[in-house]
Amino acid sequence: MNSQSEITASGEIVVGIDWADQEHALYTVYPDRRRATQGILEQTPEAIDAWMAGLQEQFPEVPVIVAIERSNGALVAALLKFPQVIIYPVNPTQLHNYRKSQKQSGAKNDPSDARLLCQYLRNYREQMRPLKPDDVGTRELALLAEQRRGAVDQRTAFVLELKEVLKQYFPVVLQLVHTDLCVHFILQLILKWPTLAQLQKVHPQKVRSFFYAHNLRGDLVEHRLTIIADARPLTEDPALVNAGRLRAQKCARLILALNQTIREYDARLKELLESHADYEIVKSLPGSALQMQSRIIAALGTDRERYQNSVEVQCVSGIAPVTIQSGRSKTVHHRFACSKFLKQTFHEYASLSITKSRWARAYYSMQRDHGKSAQTAKRALAFKWIRIIFRCWKDRVPYDEERYIASITRSNSPLLAYLEQDVVQSSTVV
């Protein structure tokens, strides 16, 4: 055993945990500095409680310092219930690079990774921050916001599948809707009359009553009835029609279920959001609605000491680019080692703000005029928004559009010309 790996600060138990699905590899260094053990911890409440009880029996009131490649999840929550446990999350990319520095082959296994986590914590602890969980409401908000986004992505996948199958055997349905296929009346129509032949056999008054029951009225209903009456089947092949009918109904049922789930997420998010201490801050951000407000709160959390400046948020979120320079060579590219959901949050907010914030719209136009692509311009705008949102969050004050524009004016920013142009265009439209 390498003697360096046995060294730890006096009066502490240092544990590296390489987490897995059902059991976790442990590497434990004890306070005497000369003893280290390897073991397995099962993912059960009884095993975790017994392990912690054993440590406390041998070393009463000694803190347990844990290095693990997670900042959330069931194992982390189970460990945090013990007041003597202090968790230091380690970024998996950082551990990967550290492993390569220790082993040129890059070979890995769970026990060796647990040991490397101990070493990493010992060597770089001063550069790391212990995990300080947000309050219960913020943690639930963060989980729900991400789960809601996952449900929306699932629904999008089923909508695309439904669109594909309808094109093959029942294309007239696509002419009956002006938005996407997740609207309630279209899904119910597919479940009730899943083929053109079935739909055209029904008396028009019955179909009209169906539309009325779904709060559809006026000329648009008559136009839809005409489309149905005049439609011709793309194919009458029984194999294709029967298989398509079942697949379309499957998609319709799944989309309806996801619609209900998303509504339930929205109701709970609204309840948590409106009672949150930072609600007034995110509510003041132009272009932000319920889901985006929840995601921004989740991105920043409640611990005001988590980030010392906005640059840390820009880097953690992946909005800040990475510059690589060697000699005369210099390249700038995306930051890939980041939370994709966090990056997506700020990028999407920048896009939403363009329609509601004067300076954001002007800044986006300026970036586009400088030859930037739409996505690059939005990332640059997100970079600026993070600085503003961070300052509001740190100072606990709502965002003030006019105050920010006044600061742009005082600094004689190049953005002023675009702001003035925006004002002229708005006046022309009015």
Question: How would you briefly describe this protein structure?
Answer:
This protein is of the alpha/beta class.
Give unreliable regions as ranges: 1-9
Number of helices: 18
Count all strands and give the number.
Answer: 7
| SSE-based structural type | alpha/beta
What share of the residues lie within helices?
A: 55-70%
Query: In percent, how much strand structure appears in the residues?
Result: 5-15%
Task: Describe the overall structure.
58% of the residues lie in helices and 9% in strands. It is of the alpha/beta class. It folds into three domains: 3-133, 2-Layer Sandwich (Nucleotidyltransferase, domain 5), CATH 3.30.420; 138-273, Helix Hairpins; 283-429, no CATH class. The strands form two sheets. Strands 3-2-1-4-5 form a five-stranded mixed sheet. A two-stranded antiparallel ribbon has the order 6-7. A hairpin with a 2-residue loop joins β6 (322-326) and β7. α10 crosses α12 and α13 (310-316) crosses α16 (374-395). The longest helix is centred in the middle third of the chain and has 37 residues, at 238-274. It is globular, with a radius of gyration of 28 Å. The chain starts with 12 loop residues before the first strand and ends with a helix.
